[in-house]
Design goal:
By secondary structure, the chain is mainly α. It has one domain. It contains 15 helices and 2 strands. Helix 1 packs across helix 3, helix 2 crosses helix 3 and helix 2 runs antiparallel to helix 8.
Amino acid sequence: MICIDADCEHNPPLAGILPPVLGIFYTFLATITFGINSATVRRGVITGSVTQVVVVSMPIGFAMFVAAALGTGQFSRITEFSPQSFAFLATAGVVHFVVGRYCGYRSIQAMGANLASPVQQWSLLVTLTLAIAYLGEALDALKIFGIALMVLGPSIVVGARRMRAPKPEVLTEKAIEAASEKPKFKPKLAQGYFFGILCCFCWGSSPILVRAGLDGTGLALAGGVVSYSAAMIAVALVLLLRGPRADARAIDPANMKWFIWIGVTVCLSQIFLYMAMAIAPVTVVQPLMRLSNIFGVLFAWYMNRDHEVFDRSVLSAIGLSMLGAAALGIESSLLIQWLGLPASIAGPLLWHWPS
């Protein structure tokens, strides 16, 4: 049996040191696979539909989570969940893996992964709001600063595109011929933002449901099996409808390899993230996860440079959203301790609401 828990009796004497290091390592693997996944999704939905992506990737993710739960010995402990925990985990599976994934992929299809990334970061705002309302958490000065940066990021993109007036160009015959052979990608911002915001509500609320479902048991992978099982049932019910069923049957064999890679990479990223959260503090894991945006841009440049937007406003928006997300994930008290800030600065940073 593979042991990933910090208090496992099979851990060596250095268990008190190794878990945080392993947690950072698992988080780093999660950021890489998240970045690969966003680029792969963009490639897959260029010629395929989002319904096809969800239908193909869902059973792959389910099988991988079952294998991970079996490997860690958690599969046999699924029965330890209470009926209420089952309900929370099942709801989280449908909300995150079905509705949220569909909306997130539609957003990427409409305006590319680079433009969708800053908007999808708003899911942290939803999580924070729900945590304040239902979990008794507070909003401090650092988190308010993070929220401002995350809201500012996408607004830079919209403002820059409105102010950018088209300039007449004198093109040679060769340039005109090249442009006609390789049409420039034109993002559909309205559609992308609509589905991106819907995705934020799903991906932002699911962590609250997962936390309520796990209820301190530490059975993250077992909980993932429950969530994926509910998602599989939901997808099966959707396929009873004629439209989605016909869409799923019309998969182009050339797209199948991308759909399979999407399923593998998204599940790997989630498994690595669950393993990191099981042994490392949230305040370490969540800020590090923002690196997935950097890997997403790098892989997008390598795989989809003709189907993405790489101008300065987009890259600035991604950078601001990353800083904002990091500010949301870091506790002010830890920042004060790390930097050794004086009392004059520490005081305002420790302010929180509700007090």
